[in-house]
Design a protein that fits this description.
Layout (H helix, E strand, L loop, with lengths): L4 E8 L9 E8 L4 E5 L6 H8 L7 E6 L2 E2 L4 H7 E4 L11 H11 L14 H14 L14 H13 L5 E5 L7 H18 L2 E5 L3 H4 L4 E6 L2 E6 L1 H8 L3 E5 L3 H10 L15 E4 L5 H7 L6 E5 L3 H22 L1
Helix pairs in contact: 3-5, 4-5, 8-11
Amino acid sequence: MPHAVEVNNLVKRYKNAAVNAVDGISFVVEQGALFALLGPNGAGKTTTISILTTTLTKTSGSVHIAGHDSDGEQNAVRSMIGVVFQRPSLDLNLTAEENVRFHSILYGLYRFRPSYGMMPDSYKQRIAELSAVLGIRDELFHPVKTFSGGMRRKLEIVRDLMHRPKILFLDEPTTGLDPVSRKNLWEYLSRVRAEEDTTIFLTTHYLEEAEHADRVCIINHGVIAAIGRPQDIRQGLTEEYLLLDAADRSALEAELSRRGLLSDSAAPAGAAEFRIMLRGKNPAAIIQSITTPLISLHIHSPTLEEAYLEMVGREEQKNGVQAAAA
């Protein structure tokens, strides 16, 4: 079975640009996986996803979607994907249902019918299911121009799930959604992945959404800064540590110092808590060995967000140094 997405040495340079927007990136996405593409604004995320979905031409390199070449087999690629872009692409003068119906007809799912009542039951059941998941079922027959930004986002997601795409590209899909709608959407997408083996290609600023990805790719200035499982990226950049404190802080500090447990970043008097960098040590063994009575204890595990911010910060600092040297 071919990869859902295969990208080799992809380059995109816009006309008159001094540098490449995407600069030789390569990665693969397995069928049925949740793949997250992360990076700051201007990093090349939207350019990449636009090339993958055939709405933008590349400068060089190769892109294959489910085994189909993105240049020579565009129709085959488009028939297999669903795309939710950051910017809405709805007809504001139509109702929500009309937007979905015409989209479904354009995809060849149904023959043209001028009204909802003339559509087959399979269409009605599908749109009812999806609109209920996103919480807009009662608004299906209202004009889209009366919708809030969040409701328009929900409608786009409904529309692009109608044809059961094998690969779903989501460019900041939950921006503008309330917490309940975000939760419902991700629960539904998890079910779709399990039942239909749908691949999800995600860009997001909500890094907690990327925590559940099978693989994460972080790009900055058009190049890949890191790629791998979220836990590998977290552990590669940030460390676990203990935060603890005692009523007798002097006694605790003396004990930790005596045993060589205080790090350079540990907190003497005035700081909130003492920090012990674990560096592969067993936290339970350390805790059990401390004789000073503790009043607070917390094991801090690194998050993907911390690793992401550290990585982007390093890249920005490096680029700043290089720019200054030039």
